[in-house]
């Protein structure tokens, strides 16, 4: 039966990993893979995570299933982190948390829920968006469309975005990046969020907010501005959250699907359907990552350590952005790439063309995806000079 099955190309980023490993250039730089790195190029385990795991190892008494919605203790800490302490949404018991295998798992739960419970609703994503969005939603049977986000000059095309949102059929789903837009790094200002909210409200659109990088932009609460604006002022919102980046627990696959309904009764109805979707996908989510997050956020001491570490990571990335632009000054390219300092999160749409990216890889051992998206966490104070020189050479 398998003899007619064709081989398909592998994931482009995974291909970059293999090519980078084989490169013998001692100055090679990996700007492709979307994980945080320190100045030594490592993705460290956070101190708070290590301490939480030690406590879990000491106190854990069972390995039993945690249920389709996950561990209640996990939801207890994720909901206020995302929606805010004292959130009116939480006070009204309008929100439900379902632990998921990473933010990707939460997106698939959302996609299946929309497909089964909101038939005929299409989904709209930014152009560009995280490539996996383009696979997840059609795989669930949804029709996917795009709205403008970045223009030909590598600038945020907010007018184009807003104009497109005004044309989306009423009742459709619109996916919005809460912060640290992947892959571009261009985020909406508070005023722009307000304008988007007004269009979403007027056209009765259902926002699905992908919140994968909370704390990596401006701060935990600052990054949640658009999420909370929508959740507190609309009857229905879907939020997908991830702990991969802000807790550095990528391989533990720890995410959350948050459903916000008009009232508590409707939330319970929706929650019952999400349990079925989860059951049909993977039955129960993995427990360990959620237990780490719960252990940290239920402890004032560990939570303080974690917040300090997260601040250090965020500040390092934002500093590297500014220093990168500064390193280009001797080549008179600082204005051309000034957008890198203005963007937020781990990723940057640099404006480099596919041909320039190819030259950086072939001539200098600098690896990034051909769209020009770079993982800023791959910058270091040791390689900024080399990067600037190489970019000047291909411009």
TrEMBL record:
Gene3D superfamilies: Aspartate Aminotransferase, domain 1, Type I PLP-dependent aspartate aminotransferase-like (Major domain). GO terms for cellular component: cytosol. One of its GO terms (molecular function) is L-aspartate:2-oxoglutarate aminotransferase activity. Its EC number is 2.6.1.1. The keyword Transferase applies. Residues 27-391 form the Aminotransferase class I/classII large domain. Signal peptide: none annotated. It holds the Pfam family Aminotran_1_2. Its cofactor is pyridoxal 5'-phosphate. Keywords: Aminotransferase, Pyridoxal phosphate, Transferase. NCBIfam families: PRK09257.1 (NF006719). Belongs to the class-I pyridoxal-phosphate-dependent aminotransferase family. Homodimer. This is Aspartate aminotransferase. The lineage of its organism: Bacteria, Pseudomonadati, Pseudomonadota, Gammaproteobacteria, Oceanospirillales. The gene is aspC_2.
